[in-house]
Amino acid sequence: MAWRHLPLFPIQNSCRLPPNMSDLWKRMFEDGKPSSFRNSTASARSGLAKESSRNSRADAIPLVRDRAIVTRIKQTPFCRLLPKSFFIGPGGILAVAFDGFPDPLLVLKEQIDKISGSTLVDERPESVWPQTTFAALKNEDATLSLEQLEKLVDICRSLTTRLHKIRDKVVISEVSYVIFSSRSLESLVFCADFPLHEVDKPVDFVSDAQKVLVNGAVTESLENPAKNLKEINKPGHRIQHFRNYASETEVVIFLTEQQELIEVILEFSKTVEKLFPGIYEFLSPDTLHCILRPIR
């Protein structure tokens, strides 16, 4: 078993399963444990104290309930996410859009819907198609001027050419089941990474329906800054949205190991910080991810 951790945050029982959990794992996963297991306390930023009991038996209960989801994850073949464009989203967030979820990941999402039934929460806009938020405006009342937005659009267009050079590099070999205490996933209560089914050629076919959704969102973001300025400056989706306490269960795709993608994102971040120092705050590269499906 490969152990993975978030370097910014302490890890509980990093070398063995937490107390009272071994028997639960045996019952949950007859065909083996997850490829890695991660249990971290809430970050100092959230100011919340977590007792050790939160990191033991209580956190295993959702996985018992969602064992069928884990089985479907392991039956899903390796996939490839195709980076499409940088874009500016609601509240001025900076993000990467991918062409769409490849067919096997869409099938997995549908299977999760059927398995979870009425207990499943609704899809969120950021889980309908694959996207990765990596920066947000620093202050709750911050807004962008038209000049700033136009410059951000120029950066998006310029560095999207870098994304296209690594279009075949983002291979997805595992999916993670997380319980978070911040939407950025910089603070996690629980995380287990499950391997996808290994195949010789990762699947990258994206349906026309997914492409239409992504193309529409990216075009709207970049084509007419003056028209979009009011929408982008609406309240919400500032850095507090991502880092303040919130708790939910999700199935996600971490992009931590996608070094070439991370390098391009960091180049974008440095360019923005140089042009607009102190306006944006950037999320940890160690927790960048796409949301596959919110669970509860």
What are the defining features of this structure?
296 residues, alpha+beta, five-stranded antiparallel β-sheet, four-stranded antiparallel β-sheet, 11 strands
Per-chain topology:
Layout: H1 22-28, E1 36-38, H2 57-65, H3 67-75, E2 79-80, E3 83-88, E4 94-98, H4 103-116, H5 125-128, E5 131-137, H6 146-164, E6 171-172, E7 174-182, E8 188-195, H7 208-223, H8 225-232, H9 239-243, E9 245-254, H10 259-275, E10 280-282, E11 289-294
* Portion of residues within helices: 25-40%
Please indicate the percent range of residues in DSSP E strands (runs of 2 or more): 15-25%
SSE class:
alpha+beta
Q: How is the biggest beta sheet arranged?
A: 5 strands, antiparallel
Q: Sketch the topology as an H/E string, one letter per element.
A: HEHHEEEHHEHEEEHHHEHEE
Global morphology:
globular
Strand order of the largest sheet: 1-8-7-9-11
Runs in which pLDDT lies below 50 for 5 or more consecutive residues are: 1-33, 39-60
Give average pLDDT, whole number: 83
Rg over C-alpha atoms, rounded to the nearest angstrom: 19 Å
Per DSSP E runs of 2 or more residues, the count of β-strands stands at: 11
| Continuous helix count | 10
In whole angstroms, the N-to-C terminal distance is 27 Å
